[in-house]
Amino acid sequence: MGGKVLRIKFAASTFYETAPAARPIYNKSVQPETSSQIILAENLVKVYAQGQIQVTAVRGISLAVEPGEFVAIVGPSGSGKSTLFYLLGGLTRATSGRVVIDGVDFASLDDAARTRLRKHRIGFVFQKFNLLPTLSAMGNIEIAYSISGRKEPMDMAYLDHLSEMLSIQGRLKHRPSELSGGEQQRVAIARALITRPAIVLADEPTGNLDTKNSDAVLHMLLRSNRELGQTTLMITHNPEAASIASRILYMRDGEIVREEKGSRADMELPAAATV
Q1: Residue 179's domain is classified under what CATH number?
Q2: Hey, how many other C-beta atoms are within 10 angstroms of the C-beta on 227?
């Protein structure tokens, strides 16, 4: 490949673009046939038009995530991390480049097919919880399952397992206004997991929570990643929150500028959160 050589420091090693590497080189091309990535982004660009001004939010990003990984993307406001989240989740179209989810190129799908892929393969967790206020916690989980289009009845044994794992037993009959912020976010996680998605995308999942509730929610995301084997990608502005991930990618000015291993990636988890 032409152009300058890009170096990425990871732990004690340095990888060069011209040498075989276990990880793709960010902001450069990726060879998708060389491994079985569940998330693949290749030369992603997203440009927004603000009047006559063109704003480039994502600048030629390429990255790959392996099945079962927990990856955090960290950056300040305006770094492009939320735009990247929406591109990877199929919630917005790239100006150029492509996103491949479990072997399927989003760009090859029409709107209806892209929506079906999201429903079946991706679970979303958002900062603002997005629970329907007129429904109970159970109702919010049930409607998410119904919208997913699955024909088989909801697996109640699996829901019991999620409720235990997320410490929301006895809270499922309550409406969101009757739940704490931490409980609402854990209900939102249960809603995302009930369809057994292969991928969980979490956008600032602790942004509206205090420290104690934030730690509980992070532990639950890590526990679900380990116990259920789901691939987890979390967007956050908080490096401490990101430290539970196995890999941390740092963004600035629409590009991924460096990669690190999470300092708490090997932490032991408590049996359950009680916040």
Answers
A1: 3.40.50.300
A2: 11
What global pTM score does this model have? 0.80
Mean pLDDT of the chain: 83
Residue 38: inside a domain: no
**Which token pair is 2?**
């032409």
Residue range 39-75, pLDDT digits in tens: 999 999 999 988 889 999 999 999 999 999 999 999 9
3-state DSSP call for residue 262? coil
Distance CA 181, CA 275 (A): 10
- Show the domain range for 198: 67-96+104-261
Bridge partners (DSSP) of residue 236 are 74
C-alpha–C-alpha distance, residues 236 and 198, integer Å: 21
Q: Is residue 59 part of a domain?
A: no
